[in-house]
């Protein structure tokens, strides 16, 4: 009963938008329990470090909240509250600055403490990026690594779709509350339901929370904080994925980046990460090795399976050099698809670029 009451009043206090994770943590520390923090008059919050300038706003909001009814609404939607003091709370997330004092979870909360790797990137994903996500998703699923991402267009959606398709476990961290009506973008609604059924949805925002632009970069600290490492697939210089990578670095976690063409705008950020010292993500094997997981988990290259396009190219290539233009004419693929396919095959160690537009098959 004590834990249930703590969750009821923690959620009630979290419904007051003037309280972020830092202020909530201060309230808990000052009053000693969520119940006492809720029962206290808001004027006493000043002693907990809350600015007196927002006390009137807090009073007005608090008067409209019924703690028990608000918590019952969560229960009806099968949304669990996980407090930072619980064993179910992700241990990795406890290590970060401004960790959320409570999380909202739909799905299998046990995954919060599984072996996790974040995979993030641009919304403007290329064919190459899609191929990488397919290989990463299948490789990580094969090795029982839980994939953490957002639910945005592009890399987020591709990696989570690949994870689900390959019967892996995924965690989607949202910048909204977890009610179905709040899932965004709506085009990823069905994906969110699959993740909730096979993995879990996570948020620090209570039901009815306003969706604000700043929620998304703030949310990224949780994606990085939940994970042993962050892999950036594709990102421009100003991509939000780089915010996640920076959070990971601040949290003393490993950062990996997938190398891309110097001519690709969505590879400028990943190539820059590598220039600054990020690990090159060429295979699930090397990711696991860097994380000291290779001895415990059978590591298959993320570049093992081949797509239909890759099979076409491999069937045309041999030990004798073939020029790119001849290859394109032979396999009847567009130049963009052929180039992306060759890049993937190079990363898989299946073909070699000899320079001058000539390629050979290695294996």
UniProtKB/TrEMBL annotation:
An individual GO BP term: DNA-mediated transformation
Entry-linked InterPro entries: DprA, DprA_WH, DrpA_SLOG, WH-like_DNA-bd_sf
Signal peptide (UniProt feature, chain positions): none
Name of the protein described by the UniProt record: DNA protecting protein DprA
Domain called DprA winged helix: residue spans: 304-357
Family: Belongs to the DprA/Smf family.
Matches recorded under SUPFAM superfamilies: MCP/YpsA-like
